[in-house]
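Morning - nicotinamide-adenine-dinucleotide inputs below, output right after.
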Amino acid sequence: MDTTSPVPPAGPLAGLLDGRTALVTGAASGIGRACAEALAGAGARVYVVDLAAEAAEQVALRIGGVVHVTDLADPAAVDALPDDADIVVNNAGLQHVAPLHEFPPERFTLIQRVMVEAPFRILRRTLPHMYRRGWGRVVNISSVHGLRASPFKSAYVTAKHALEGLSKTVALEGAPHGVTSNCVNPGYVRTPLVERQIAGQALAHKIPEDEVVERIMLDRTAVKRLIEPGEIAQLALWLCSPHASYITGASLPVDGGWTAR
Ligand code: NAD
């Protein structure tokens, strides 16, 4: 199989989500943007939720979505988001790399707020709508770091493991109401979040950026390339299809074999 070829567009899934509304957090960039585009391409009306106003507006314009410029670290702002989503993609996230004994507590708290509390707050308000309609899809963009730890990423690893627990609990509570909840667990995806890490590591280790990717990031993966955001988006879209209605409470690695070790 050619693992370098670009992901094909939704194709057979076009029209799948006509009449559905999706809320995607962190939809202005990277994986979230790709998810928003894929869901809109399949017919969903998309709430484009992000802190980055200009980029979010551009995405919404392109896909005919509705922008919500929201700081997910602000509980009141999160609670003001629409509660009528049939699909929620909890995607927004951020990273901070530091040894635990030097990790700034306020960064730790911020990461839990954005990556754990905001998904909880969004779901507690949107699940009643899904239950009323007897259908809902929750896609949590977790990470290999929801399944495995790495040093110096304590806040991120903690938050992703918490998201895994939240996702499984929602799966159990949502099943009688036609709601599934799953985690998607990517390895390193080619997005601004990872590009910033590559630049940081190159500086720290005094090595070129392509060596950071090959020697550090892809060290554990069997498939020696970064993932493209569209590949994650296609899995998120598929999880919203009828073929995936029996898949719930699962964590689906898209990691080129990282967790096979
Ligand atoms: P990205 O930096 O490209 O995009 C993240 C988006 O989240 C940005 O648009 C940003 O503005 C938004 N965001 C951050 N903080 C916010 C806040 N307080 N309020 C509102 N929006 C906020 O990152 P990405 O790589 O696309 O990551 C998306 C998700 O995928 C994250 O949860 C990340 O942990 C996860 N993930 C990424 C990778 C990877 O390699 N890129 C791997 C595994 C998991």
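Note: The CA atoms of residues 19 and 106 lie 41 Å apart.

O.
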